[in-house]
Design brief:
11 helices; mainly alpha; Arc Repressor Mutant, subunit A; 2 domains; Tetracycline Repressor, domain 2
């Protein structure tokens, strides 16, 4: 790995550590420089501002999620309903990993959300993670597993519903499993597939709202 790449990664990792550690008020630039062990001159070779570091941290995490979800679609294990379950399962698996939960908390923190272009990066990352789901839904539409599927808007809607359920912050394995199951059951119903009864948290009216958002 080149020196420049090492420096950049070190600065992003330092910013993450500073955001994780207890602090009052915004994280000062001096704290990031000290944690990374670099000078301000080195910092500005890679980033124009503290906001840009926070956005790089957000992008790094979102890219990792998209890669994990892409692999689900690439493996194509089982039928499309199985692949949909795997995709949703991969999303909820983050809640069972303490390190991942911490990362989620950091990138959703007030300070990161306040960074300029946060919404732009976030929206682009949603599209990146949904591309694998679009492919799974297309397979289901082609083989008849998901007769009501409209892949692009449905991928957006399913991703949004998963995010909504994750935002309820289920903690124990049982709570996470129930939230995952509700999301899957709801998605299967909306796609016209056979599914378990029990979509009690989200109604079909909600699907129309989310799907057409």
């Amino acid at each position: 790995m080149s020196l420049a790449r090492c420096e950049r990664r070190s600065i992003i990792a330092a910013a993450y550590r500073c955001l994780v550690e207890p602090h009052t008020g915004p994280v000062p630039m001096s704290a990031i420089l000290a944690a990374a062990g670099v000078s301000s001159r080195t910092f500005y070779r890679h980033f124009t501002s503290k906001d840009e570091v926070f956005l790089a941290l957000l992008q790094q995490h979102c890219d990792a999620i998209a890669d994990r979800l892409d692999r689900v679609a690439e493996r194509a294990e089982g039928d499309p309903a199985d692949q949909l379950a795997d995709w949703i399962g991969e999303m909820f698996a983050m809640l069972l990993d303490s390190e991942q939960r911490q990362v989620l908390a950091v990138i959703d923190s007030e300070e990161v959300r306040a960074a300029g272009r946060y919404r732009e990066v976030r929206e682009r990352s949603h599209a990146d993670r949904e591309r694998s789901l679009v492919e799974i839904l297309r397979r289901g539409r082609c083989d008849g597993s998901f007769p009501l599927a409209d892949p692009e808007p449905d991928a957006v809607a399913i991703s949004a519903v998963a995010g909504r359920m994750m935002a309820t912050n289920p903690t124990g394995a049982g709570d996470v499993e129930r939230a995952k199951r509700r999301t899957l059951d709801f998605a299967l119903r909306a796609l016209g597939a056979a599914c378990a009864v029990g979509c009690d948290e989200i109604g079909t009216a909600d699907w129309s709202v989310v799907r057409n958002h």
